[in-house]
Amino acid sequence: MEFKKVTFDDYEIINAFYQNYPARQCDRSTAATIMWRNYYDNHYAVYDGTITFSSNFTGEICFTYPIGRNVDGMLDELHKHCVENNIPMTLCGVNKAELPFILAKYPECNYSADRDWFDYLYEKEPMMLLAGRKYGTPRNHINKFKKLYPDYSFDVIDDSVTDKLIEFTKSFSFNSEKDESAMKELEMCIEVLENRKKYNMHGGYLHIGDKIIGYSFGEIIGDTLFVHIEKADVSFSGAYQMLTNSFLKTFAADDSVRYVNREEDCGDEGLRKSKLSYHPVELIEKNMVEIPL
User: Fold this and answer.
1) Model-level pTM?
2) Residues in contact with 230: Cβ distance below 8 Å, sequence separation at least 6, in sequence order
3) Same domain flag for 126 and 16
4) Would residue 282 count as lying in a domain?
5) pLDDT, tens digit, for every residue of 208-230?
6) Same structural domain for residues 63 and 125?
7) b/e per residue, 182-218, with b = 16+ CB within 10 A?
């Protein structure tokens, strides 16, 4: 079995698998797979209408749960590949629905899940409406923003604003110099902006007059809107909450979208508190599974 490096040219191949076999977790989305292709050294292999990816995660190679018509056959091929190349067979991102099949096929395997990497999944309607007491915190932030900045606007990203968004990103500060993954994320934001049409994502930006104060990118797969990028200037009170709400009302209004995935918190307590304030309907558990050869 031969693995090929993920590039922009593979967009249609990868997207077809994700669209035909949709899941609601962020690492099963086309843009995320391509965005992180270099950081995680993403490769893919196809066998009998089924795809799997290899990634260098935390310094070790792991493989994604196969997607396609012959999961069992792909797992057998993957096992042969690992034996022939003398590498461990570790599966990553295995969700709760998939885990029983793996445990039945490999009863001697070991598995574990890290809370820091659980996805936040929300129902769309409550997130858009923010009705009721439990949504009081984000709703109050939005109301404050509207009072402070009545001339705000949210618009769809087009070619006329791309250069301004790149400059905004370059000046954006979130201590990226202290965190390698944050610095890589900043670089990826710029790459997405420079290759906006290749990524084929929905994008919108928040501004007050001519001043850009935030932007978001996301994609729809199945019944889920995946929000891959959210960047806002926190010196404008309520900017993140306003950006999130505006993005959903613009790109998730269609009835075909039922859920919103806002990815992981990576163990950041501030981010965790913020994401929990929107009351997720599920924290998508993702397991690492070690399979003996």
Assistant:
1) 0.95
2) 214, 216, 240, 243, 244, 247, 262
3) no
4) no
5) 999 999 999 999 999 999 999 99
6) no
7) eebbbebbebbbeebeebebbbbbbbbeeebbbbbbb
